[in-house]
Amino acid sequence: MTDDTLAQARATRLARLTAPDGWLSLIGFDWLAEGPQRVGSAPDNDIVLAAGPAHVGTIVLDADGTTTLEVEPGAGVLVDGRKVARATLLDDAAGRTPTEVRFGTARLFVILRDGRKALRVRDEQAETRTRFAGLEHFPDDASWRVVADWVPFDPPRDLAFGTVLGTIETEKVPGKAVFERDGRTFELMPIQETPDALFFVFADGTSGKETYGAARFLDTALPRDGKLVIDFNEARNPPCAFTPYATCQLAPPENRLDVRVEAGELKYRGGSH
Fold this sequence. Notes:
The protein is 7% helix and 39% strand. It is mainly beta. The strands form 4 sheets. Strands 1-10-9-8-6 form a 5-stranded antiparallel sheet, with no helix packed on it. Strands 3-2-4-5-7 form a 5-stranded mixed sheet, with no helix packed on it.
């Protein structure tokens, strides 16, 4: 990756992070229990929001997983852009777009994590967004653009990833990248979330010191002719480095490198967790 291409990738990363619907806009995460739950910013609600009207309405989670919202009259709530009295709330299962419940600059929607449903809330005026402290990086280092040998797994192997929620997610791993650094051999195992890229969750000797403790994330193109290019200068902080309301994966033991990867994003200086 050239300096110009790396700069463009970082500009795109910054734009996505700071967008009105980016990770910095998160202001809430609450698990839903079966039955009715009153939602709003007033303290008498079952789920108290950090923004919005005193009473948004009542969310009902049925035993079969169906989630509905009874809107509080006069709350100024729009469901997918429409003013309604009652609506079924679709979650984000299988990558679909969840139903959006908007009120002012904030909105909530239902997500599905580890078989459980939760409310996620965003606000374009969240302090994490309006007071964003910016991104910092190690000095760019071409030596951390490594060409690894790609060892495919046939069939793909299962790999367990812990999450910040304390849950375990099992992912399919299509192979491993093997590379050398300072005369030592290292391995990393990715998952494949999209058809045209690989996704790594890794930690290293800088984790918890110069970089975020739980993990850093890194995307690569697919391997070609048995080789995989991994540019650690593109390593980035997970959403959990910026907000306590994200649900990030942790680096599995297989991806904890016994070396200092002095490349990519540094620990977020505006973080408090």
